[in-house]
Description:
189 residues, alpha+beta, 2 domains, three-stranded antiparallel β-sheet, 9 helices
Amino acid sequence: MNREQQKAAVEAILFTMGDSVETDKIAKALDISGGEMKKIIDEMKEGYEQEDRGIRLIELEDAVQLCTKPEMYEPLIRVASQPKKRVLTDVLLETLAIVAYKQPVTRLDIERIRGVKSDHAVNKLIEYDLIRELGRLDAPGRPLLFGTTEEFLRCFGVGSPDELPMLTPEQMEEFMSEAEEEMNLKVEV
């Protein structure tokens, strides 16, 4: 590797790791000496300071880290303070509805109702803080139980799961007939 490739490798390592990385670990990964590593770090620091860049390289005892330049904090804060846009697909909404109305519910219960594996949907809803683990069912295998969170209640404007709207018998009958029609279409295909 030439010097520019070594710098690129250091930059890639620091960017990917996010936190500080010990310089001896980087030197070992690049198969270079500690002295060479120090020279690369010094060159990179100088390059980041001279160029009109939004990041800088800082040294922390025996480690280095990429971080934002202080003059970039204002635009960074404007972006970071914007609420994250969550996309709830039909699959996620279906899974969330099952959890909301059947809680506490196991992943297997969700999969029985949906008819398909639901690992991704459950994990995504946990990531979005709309559902959480409530504990374990006292049954063989001790499966996890899931329920909704306070964030779910805030997002859907209800004070408790008891306030969720209930289906009327007419709506239930309509949904059942739609489901039967869909099943008949799938069988014909």
